[in-house]
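Thread title: Can someone regenerate the structure for this chain?

I was given the following input by a collaborator and told the matching structure tokens would be attached. They weren't. Posting the sequence so someone can regenerate them.
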Amino acid sequence: MKNLSLILNIVLFVAVAVLYYLHFSNGKSSSTGTEISAPKDLNIAYINSDTVLKYYDYFKVNRDKLESKGKKLDQDLRNRAQSFQNDYEAYQRNVSNLTIGQAKAVEEDLAKKEVELSQKRYAKQLEKQKEKEKKQEEELEQQRIESKKETDLKKK
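Best answer:
Regenerated them for you:
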């Protein structure tokens, strides 16, 4: 067993030595890699970093404004839903103390509030969908601009 290990180590050492020699020798026969040549027609692209940074800051400011506006609208919608829920619960607690006319008036008021709330939710969903579509259109436009730049650089 010790002899087998010794023989195996010797064979591996010889193989490593041969590979080392072939890799670092100056002979052309051991060269298996491809040579890298400098491009003959080198194109240089310029980026106006000040313009990019200017519009990036503009984007961040507007994004923050839109996010805060969205949060305010979400909170308003939640407050309205909670108000409606409280009014409905109060109606259910006090329905036995109300006259038929008062009960109908409260029911009509609750129905109006429910319709308004559902309209606000629907409007919010539409607004989110429009924002999503607008974002997708902006991404497509950006991709189109980038591909145009790439084709222009390739033509040069």
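Residues 100-155 form the longest helix (56 residues).
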